[in-house]
Design goal:
With about 200 residues, the protein is α/β, with parallel strands linked by helices. It has helices at about 1-10, 25-30, 45-65, 75-85, 105-115, 130-140; strands at about 15-20, 65-75, 95, 120, 160-175, 180-190. The strands form 2 sheets. A 4-stranded parallel sheet has the order 1-2-3-4, covered by helices on one side. A two-stranded antiparallel sheet has the order 5-6.
Length: about 200
C-alpha cells in the first residue's frame, strides 16, 4: 500500500474496498436464501480464515489512518454474518457486482441496513488481471512492454512465469466539483523460475 500511496502522492485514502479470491455475489442465490457465493475449491472455514488474515492488514491501515473507511466486495448476507463478528474494525461498505440484474435483493438491502453497511454497486470485470493477460502486457508481443522474455526463446528480458498477486483500482475525485480527476490501476506480480537475461 505504501508504494500506491507514494505513486499517487497522498498520505491516506478515503475508502479502500477489498475483493477476496473465491468470493462472488450471486443475486439469485441471495434471494433464495442460499450462500450467495460461487462454489470454491476450499472449505468455507479455510476461505473465511484466509479472508480474515488479509482483513487484519486492512484493519491496520484503518487504525493508522491510512484508509479512512474500509469495505469489502462481493459479500452476500451469509458471508457477512460469518465475517462481521470476527472483525475488529467492521467494513462500512459492501460493493456488489450487479451484473445484468441492476437491482439488489430486498433481503440483502434489509440486512445491510440492520448492520449499518452501505451497499455500493459496480459492473467491473471479476478477473481484472488474468495470468495470460499479464504475460501479454509485459512480453515482447506487438502491444507488450518488452519486459518479459518470450516463452521458450532466447529473447532479452526477464525469464520465468509471472503470477498476479494483487491489483489496486483507484479513482481520484475532486470533492468540490464531484468530478473524477484520475483513475487507473496498480498491480503486483511474482516472477518465478527465472532470472535476468
Amino acid at each position: 500500500m505504501a508504494a500506491v500511496l507514494e505513486e499517487l502522492g497522498v498520505d491516506s485514502v478515503d475508502l479502500i474496498i477489498v475483493s477476496f479470491p473465491g468470493i462472488s455475489f450471486d443475486a439469485e442465490s441471495e434471494e433464495r436464501g442460499d450462500c450467495g457465493s460461487a462454489s470454491v475449491s476450499v472449505s468455507d472455514t479455510e476461505l473465511l480464515d484466509a479472508t480474515l488474515e488479509a482483513w487484519r492488514e486492512v484493519e491496520t491501515l484503518n487504525s493508522k489512518g491510512v484508509a479512512l473507511q474500509v469495505g469489502v466486495a462481493e459479500f452476500g448476507r451469509e458471508q457477512l454474518q460469518k465475517f462481521l463478528p470476527r472483525t475488529f474494525r467492521r467494513p462500512t461498505v459492501d460493493q456488489i457486482n450487479v451484473g445484468d440484474c441492476h437491482v439488489l435483493p430486498e433481503s440483502m438491502m434489509l440486512f445491510a441496513k440492520q448492520e449499518n453497511l452501505e451497499l455500493l454497486t459496480h459492473n467491473d470485470c471479476t478477473n481484472i488481471l488474468p495470468e495470460g493477460a499479464l504475460r501479454e502486457l509485459l512480453g515482447h508481443d506487438e502491444k507488450g512492454a518488452g519486459v518479459l522474455a518470450s516463452s521458450g526463446s532466447e529473447s532479452k528480458g526477464l525469464k520465468g512465469d509471472v503470477t498476479p498477486q494483487w491489483v489496486v483500482k483507484y479513482t481520484a475525485v475532486d470533492r468540490d466539483r464531484g468530478v473524477i480527476e484520475n483513475k487507473g490501476y496498480f498491480a503486483s506480480a511474482e516472477l518465478t523460475d527465472g532470472a535476468n537475461a
